[in-house]
Amino acid sequence: MGRQPCCEKSGLNRGPWTIEEDHKLMTFILSNGIQCWRTVPKLAGLHRCGKSCRLRWINYLRPDLKRGALTEAEEEMIIQLHSRLGNRWSKIAAHFPGRTDNEIKNHWNTRIKKKLQVLSSNHTSHTPLQQYEDCEVKKEGGTMKPESATEQGEIKLELQGTLVFRDPKIPQFDGRFNYGLHEGSNMGPVEIQKADHTTTLFSEEISKPLPEDFLQQWIDSPLPWDFFSDLKEDT
DNA sequence: AAGTACAGCAACCGCTTATAA
DNA sequence: GTTATAAGCGGTTGCTGTACT
Predict the structure, then answer these.
(1) For chain A, is the Cβ count within 10 Å smaller at the N or the C terminus?
(2) Are A139 and A106 members of one domain?
């Protein structure tokens, strides 16, 4: 029943790959292709687990890999995608031909995360909502629901709704936005997007503590539009 | 020059999902 | 429908090189 086990766990090489191992794996895959990772190390003459071979190929040996540091534009796109997809690195990596999920994950954890932390700590002096002060904003329905709560009292909410913007600088578009926040925190960026047009709004004005009654009031109310009091609302 | 701290990244671990038997 | 396994995925670890003291 079922399939054969992937590989023997004992007697296999571990740790960094040698040039010779790389060469064996690359030569084998280029001439035979990949049918089954389990059989690859055996057929290629490697003392490695199939899983390890797969990882080495995907993250390092694939000929279509793009080498070199990620560009500013790529970084910006990662931030945008991460705000929508969260830590789904493979989904994010799918938008970057030649880049691997591991590469993007590492880049996020070692660089972007820190960059954003610095940005958010400077956030109180940042008022990009002014950028949209000429906007007319129209609400078109929306829902809000508690997503999760922890024992530490951290509450995450999901808000979904539709905004229609009218702005001379931005063609009219509707958007879907989601965010999470917890008691006493600043709310993160609110992303407004449609098709290939994505932008992000920030505001320190929308930082609110969330005592239970206030939270309930929020949950009960159809739309928490107080968050957007800075914007002219066209109802 | 030596020791320590830190950053970056490759590789591993363990869980989840898809699929063959 | 159930079970076992391969493949995929995200979190984490640990090695290596570099900067700092």
Answers:
(1) N
(2) no
